[in-house]
Q: What sequence folds into this?
């Protein structure tokens, strides 16, 4: 089985979240109501760069939290965030991402980030299961997760209330054997492509 680099995908790379640029960007992204309402179920609220810095410092010492900035391969632009929250005793982790820069949404960057974080969870952290939640009013994210190999498991019907409408809260996951099989398939397709050239 052949793997790419640990921190680099096709479109994005994982980077540290501790610089002032990230805090300022995340604070700016909290002013985007669509972004805030799709990444979490809590009421949307704007936060300052100083509050982001304090949150980063708090998370920095948690042994079960792996938080990253998402930067483009082409141009090294900061476009989002991603992270893993690990349950070591069960070998599973919650995955979350957000593409904060609107012009990079729905262009494959989210899918690439999910694949990269999933790879990191299995290859580096030794997880057996990666899971996530997505709201029913976010079909773009569901497509990204399905492209990355995630399967729908549980639907909490009508759990999300936005603008007078109810949406489902959907749990999805991928297991290590499923991910391994996907890597084998993708590896054999890559080998076929190079032998045809």
A:
């Amino acid at each position: 089985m052949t793997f790419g680099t640990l921190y680099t995908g096709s479109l994005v790379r994982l980077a540290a979240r501790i610089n002032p640029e990230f805090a300022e960007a995340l604070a700016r992204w909290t002013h985007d109501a669509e972004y805030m309402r799709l990444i979490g179920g809590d009421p949307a609220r704007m936060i300052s760069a100083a509050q982001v810095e304090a949150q980063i410092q708090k998370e920095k010492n948690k042994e079960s939290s792996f938080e990253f900035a998402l930067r483009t391969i082409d141009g090294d632009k900061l476009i989002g965030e991603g992270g893993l929250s690990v349950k070591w005793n069960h070998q599973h982790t919650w995955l979350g991402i957000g593409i904060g820069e609107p012009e990079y949404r729905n262009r494959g960057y989210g899918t690439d980030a999910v694949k990269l974080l999933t790879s990191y969870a299995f290859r580096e952290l030794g997880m057996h299961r990666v899971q996530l939640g997505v709201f029913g009013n976010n079909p773009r994210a569901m497509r990204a997760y399905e492209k990355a190999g995630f399967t729908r498991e549980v639907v909490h019907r009508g759990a999300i209330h936005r603008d007078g409408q109810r949406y489902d809260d959907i749990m999805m996951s991928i297991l290590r054997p499923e991910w391994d099989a996907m890597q084998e398939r993708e590896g054999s397709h890559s080998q076929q492509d190079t032998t045809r050239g």
Notes: Residues 12-196 form a domain with the Aminopeptidase fold (CATH 3.40.630.30). The helical segments are 20-29, 33-39, 49-60, 109-123, 139-147, 176-196. The radius of gyration is 17 Å. Residues 111 and 145 are 7 Å apart (CA to CA).
